[in-house]
Amino acid sequence: MPTAFEVVFLGMLDDAQCLGLDLPYDTPTVAALRKECQRKLNRYICSQHCFFHHITRSSN
């Protein structure tokens, strides 16, 4: 699961961009952070889906 920092920081960057603040949004560091956060979210979502699928199949 992504750390709170990744989620909060990227959310703050998105909010800042919506407000028109002039910040470096397209740096390699920010891109890498977004990619890593998305990878972790995908892994978390997949693990939750697999867990619930297992639970529903076991209860039948």
Number of helices: 2
Helix and strand pattern: HH
Number of DSSP-assigned strands: 0
The fraction of residues in strands falls at under 5%
Mean pLDDT, to the nearest integer, reads: 82
Helical percent range?
A: over 70%
What is Rg?
16 Å
Number of domains: 1
Class of secondary structure makeup? mainly alpha
Unreliably modeled segments? none
Outline: elongated
**Main sheet characteristics:** none
End-to-end separation in angstroms reads 29 Å
Write a structural description.
The chain has 60 residues and is mostly helical. Helix content is 77%, strand content 0%. It has helices at 4-18, 28-58. The longest helix is centred in the C-terminal third of the chain and has 31 residues, at 28-58. The mean pLDDT is 82.
List keywords for this structure.
60 residues, mainly alpha, 2 helices, 0% strand
Topology:
Blueprint: H1 4-18, H2 28-58
Describe this structure in a few short sentences.
By secondary structure, the protein is mostly helical.
